[in-house]
């Protein structure tokens, strides 16, 4: 039986709000300002404690929104977690081709976190009676065909992304994985755990809806829903581009969502800081 895995943790957080960070203009009080006044001004500008933390995550996709996502995250001083598969992009290449090395290196330098999304974007179909796992890769030499994996083969599919990411960036992945479509089973979860990767789903309120038809689920509706329903500890999911959505989600919604959540007092962190994953910081 298929299981779409979501995580709905609600954990308090005491990180400092990035929305309240001082600008360079406020880095030091002018020499002519008395010490007491300078101290008072500094106190008034000090960042307040967060009212909660949201964990932004992005899965690879068509990559049509890749640079926009990077630009918005930098603009808003937000660190996110990216889940990578080797997916076909709107540039005509694949997201783990050498042509994407500069992009991923830049994100590493910015301090984001990274997990595996299976190399060929492999969908779980069912656990077989003979102990094998039936899967359907979306890409690669067996793209679109059913295949049967042992636990070890499934594990290797996760590790292929790690190996490739190190080749592109010189950095290992963080010990997280996310199933394409969110579909997992006890066997796939166990296989991932056996090779050092913990599955990371998302909160019900954290589903961006960017895979849905834009005529039935317009961006304004999705934005309003997310702003109203997200709570501290929620993991949010969006994609770096969806082939099928006519009105792309990110250009209209990402900056507005982050700024709206920051206005509510929320801060952002990678899954390295999430209570459910923080104890898993060691690399696989």
From TrEMBL:
Keywords, ordered alphabetically: Signal
Keyword match Signal: yes
PROSITE patterns documented for this protein: NODB
Signal peptide: 1-27
Entries under InterPro entries matching the protein: Glyco_hydro/deAcase_b/a-brl, NODB_dom, Polysacc_deacetylase_ArnD
Keyword Coiled coil: no
CDD domains: CE4_NodB_like_6s_7s
Organism superkingdom: Bacteria
Short name of one Pfam family: Polysacc_deac_1
Ranges where the NodB homology domain occurs: 52-269
PANTHER family: 4-DEOXY-4-FORMAMIDO-L-ARABINOSE-PHOSPHOUNDECAPRENOL DEFORMYLASE ARND-RELATED, GLYCOSYL TRANSFERASE-RELATED
Name of the featured protein: Polysaccharide deacetylase family protein
């Amino acid at each position: 039986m298929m299981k779409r895995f979501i995580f709905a943790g609600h954990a308090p957080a005491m990180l400092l709000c990035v929305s309240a960070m001082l600008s360079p203009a406020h880095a030091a009080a002018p020499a002519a300002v008395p010490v007491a006044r300078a101290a008072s001004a500094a106190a008034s500008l000090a960042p307040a404690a967060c009212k909660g933390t949201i964990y932004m995550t992005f899965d690879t996709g068509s990559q049509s929104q890749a640079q926009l996502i990077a630009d918005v995250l930098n603009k808003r001083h937000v660190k996110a977690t990216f889940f990578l598969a080797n997916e076909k992009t709107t540039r005509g290449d694949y997201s783990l081709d050498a042509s994407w090395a500069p992009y991923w290196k830049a994100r590493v330098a910015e301090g984001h976190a990274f997990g595996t999304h299976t190399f060929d974007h492999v969908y779980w179909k069912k656990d077989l009676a003979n102990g094998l796992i039936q899967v359907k890769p979306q890409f690669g030499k067996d793209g679109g065909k059913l295949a049967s994996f042992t636990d070890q083969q499934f594990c290797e599919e996760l590790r292929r992304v790690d190996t490739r990411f190190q080749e592109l960036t010189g950095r290992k992945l963080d010990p997280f994985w996310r199933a394409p479509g969110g579909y997992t089973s006890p066997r796939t979860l166990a296989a991932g755990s056996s090779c050092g990767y913990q599955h990371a789903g998302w909160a019900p309120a954290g589903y961006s809806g960017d895979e849905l038809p834009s005529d039935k689920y317009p961006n304004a509706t999705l934005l309003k829903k997310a702003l109203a329903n997200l709570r501290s500890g929620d993991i949010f999911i969006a994609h770096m581009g969806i082939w099928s959505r006519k009105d792309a989600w990110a250009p209209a919604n990402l900056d507005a969502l982050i700024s709206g959540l920051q206005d509510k007092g929320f801060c952002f962190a990678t899954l390295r800081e999430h209570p459910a994953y923080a104890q898993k910081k060691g690399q696989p």
